[in-house]
Design a protein that fits this description.
Elements lengths: L4 E7 L2 E7 L3 H50 L4 H18 L4 H24 L1
Antiparallel strand pairs: 1-2
Helix pairs in contact: 1-2, 2-3
Pfam family, one: Tim17
Subcellular location: Membrane
Protein name: Mitochondrial inner membrane translocase subunit
């Protein structure tokens, strides 16, 4: 009757796991499955972290722009959100190597979204 076993060790950055399924073919198949699964999970985590950081960067640029406009104008109102949103839309669009029309469109869109969010914030 086949017998299964499991053993593992951790030394430094290498993790060594041995699973004995009682058949060399099954052992290699399971070993390959575990290695590929670990690589896939690591890749998915890295891609998610990249997208989260990218979105956070845009939010950070907006907050910085709005704060800068607040300091320059010396007042806090919806116009700061509009200017900060427009500047953020333009900066993000320029960094994406878009043409002039796309930069202008993204600046207008950024200003409109930021202004709408500010007005909704005032309502609640």
């Amino acid at each position: 009757m086949p017998k299964s076993g499991f053993s593992g060790s951790l030394s430094g950055p290498n993790v060594d796991v041995t699973i004995d399924m009682g058949n060399p073919f099954l052992n290699l198949t399971l070993d390959g499955f575990l290695k590929i699964g670990t690589i896939a999970a690591t890749r998915a985590a890295a891609e998610d972290a990249y997208h989260i950081i990218r979105k956070g960067t845009v939010a950070g640029v907006y907050v910085g722009m709005q704060y800068g406009v607040d300091r320059i104008r010396g007042t806090r109102d919806w116009k700061n959100a509009m200017i900060g949103g427009a500047l953020t839309g333009a900066v993000v669009s320029i960094s994406s190597n878009n043409d002039k029309d796309k930069v202008l469109l993204n600046a207008i869109t950024g200003g409109a979204i930021a202004t709408a969010a500010e007005f909704i914030n005032y309502l609640t």
